[in-house]
């Protein structure tokens, strides 16, 4: 939702996320504790959290933070199980996204990871520009491995390799995951891919066949990063991910009726980008 200019009413967000909770996803990203000037769409995340119906919910809730203050605000909510932090291989994009250098951002990650450990929460770090760099900064799969190693050294256990601007190809996705996954067997490494609808299936297939088992997705492929270079490239759609996993008989147990309702509700309630 963060890239949608028109403010989505808080009650609409609550209703939609409550429907997602019924499906049975492992984790649901419900908002961000970031500057409302930077991401005005997420300014009501606290209200959204208070309005969610978590009775008998199996899904864990995740929120995005960009600094220690945001992490502390998020950790005030017992409902929040996981914090997400955007770290970039690109110095240019790190400055655009969090107004910090990479060196500064890694120090913030270290501090937030400590806070999560102290409060028995989880941290996932999104490594953006994980499959290429359109800003002219250095990129290679080896550089991605170096960043992942730095995160492992400070105790981070979960990393999502992110294609924030939709530059990845199936061959690149395969190459990256076949390099990174064996190198860090004790870490949980996932895919946070952005793509056009026609490219999404092949990217999911490439990541899965390379061993990835954690995927981020959005209903209808909604979304994109408003800090990215050009027009928004949507997230991998949940429907595409489900279609692929069903085709190989690997879909985890979930409420398919609730999924269909959420998909329809997304089309009715949320403006398309």
Automatic annotation (TrEMBL):
Residues 1-252 form the Pyruvate carboxyltransferase domain. InterPro entries: Aldolase_TIM, HMGL, PYR_CT. The keyword Lyase applies. Keywords: Lyase, Metal-binding. The keyword Chaperone does not apply. GO terms for molecular function: lyase activity. Belongs to the HMG-CoA lyase family. This is Hydroxymethylglutaryl-CoA lyase. It comes from Algivirga pacifica.
């Amino acid at each position: 939702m963060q890239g949608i200019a028109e403010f989505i009413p808080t009650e609409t967000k609550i209703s939609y996320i409550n429907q997602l909770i019924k499906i049975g996803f492992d984790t649901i990203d419900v908002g961000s504790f970031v500057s409302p000037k930077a991401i005005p769409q997420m300014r009501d995340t606290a209200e959204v959290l208070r309005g969610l119906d978590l009775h008998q919910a199996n899904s864990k809730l995740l929120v995005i933070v960009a600094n220690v203050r945001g992490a502390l605000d998020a950790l005030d909510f017992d409902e929040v199980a996981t914090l997400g932090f955007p770290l970039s291989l690109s110095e240019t994009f790190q400055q655009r996204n969090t107004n910090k250098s990479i060196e500064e951002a890694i120090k913030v990650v270290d501090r937030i990871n400590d806070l999560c450990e102290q409060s028995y929460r989880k941290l996932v770090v999104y490594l953006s520009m994980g499959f290429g760099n359109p800003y002219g900064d250095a990129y290679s799969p080896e550089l991605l491995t170096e960043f992942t190693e730095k995160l492992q050294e400070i105790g981070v256990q979960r990393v999502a390799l992110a294609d924030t601007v939709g530059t990845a190809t199936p061959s690149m996705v395969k190459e990256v995951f076949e390099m990174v996954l064996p190198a860090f067997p004790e870490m949980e490494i996932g895919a946070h891919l952005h793509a056009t609808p026609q490219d999404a299936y092949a990217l999911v297939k490439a990541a899965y066949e390379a061993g990835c088992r954690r995927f981020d997705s959005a209903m209808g492929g909604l979304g994109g990063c408003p800090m990215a270079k050009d027009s928004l490239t949507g997230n991998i759609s949940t429907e595409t991910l489900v279609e692929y996993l069903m085709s190989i008989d690997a879909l985890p147990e979930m409420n398919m009726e609730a999924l269909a309702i959420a998909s329809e509700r997304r089309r009715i309630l949320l403006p398309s980008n």
